[in-house]
Amino acid sequence: MTFTTATVAAAALLLAAAATPAAAIVRSFNDLSANTIRSGFSPADFKMPTFVPANTLSLPIGQVSQGTVDNYPALGMRDIQMSYVAVKLNAGATLPAHTHPRAAEMDYVVYGVVKNSIVEEFGSARPSINTILHAGEVGIIPEGLVHAQTCMGSEGCLFIAMFNSADPGTSLSQSSICALAPMQVATSLGNGKSPAEAEKFCMGGVF
To answer: Pick from 19, 47, 134, 172: most CB atoms within 10 A?
Structure first.
């Protein structure tokens, strides 16, 4: 299957890396007390910026900027274990369906109107959970469930997504399914799609 450059770049930005010096620091934290660990960080380490160019990906839908332990090791402290993503969406744009396998998510809307759509797990009494968030409101997303956010406002949206893990992980739904063989993709998409149609579906990428 083929992915677009933007799709691969988005996945690379959203996925928290494991084999990095910062991750190695986090692993060593288990050998020290929380107080000792904190004493090794300066006050400046307890404040994180958003939309730093090195951590920000500009896309047709807007901008996505991630704060992870790889960028800010203090997030990996034993008594913190958090990460965040700042998302600017253009009016009418949608952040594609994705999951975070190791974290629940809390979204704070800074401005705009955001629709949070969550896909329930198989066998649930309802297929999805949809909420409309206005500026100043907070939405929550259970760990591991597929979800997407759409900017309903006419002037764009900004929200901050916070995770209860320093390594939440991210899987983009379309990219994930397109990693399968064409026949498997066709079966997963349903509606009588052929492997050729599945190939065409995956050629488009996410963005």
So the answer is: 172
pTM for the whole thing? 0.79
CA atoms within 13 A on the CB side of 25: 18
Which is nearest to 26 in space by CA: 101, 79, 67? 79
- Through-space distance between the first and last CA atoms of the chain, rounded to whole angstroms: 16
Pair of tokens at residue 156: 């764009």
- Other beta carbons within 10 angstroms of residue 170's beta carbon come to 19
Q: Give the chain's largest Cα–Cα span.
A: 60
One digit per residue, the tens of pLDDT, for the chain of length 207 reads 444 444 434 433 443 333 355 554 555 556 788 888 899 999 999 999 999 999 999 999 999 999 999 999 999 998 999 999 999 999 999 999 999 999 999 999 999 999 999 999 988 899 999 999 999 999 999 999 999 999 997 899 999 999 999 999 999 988 888 999 999 999 988 878 899 988 888 886 655
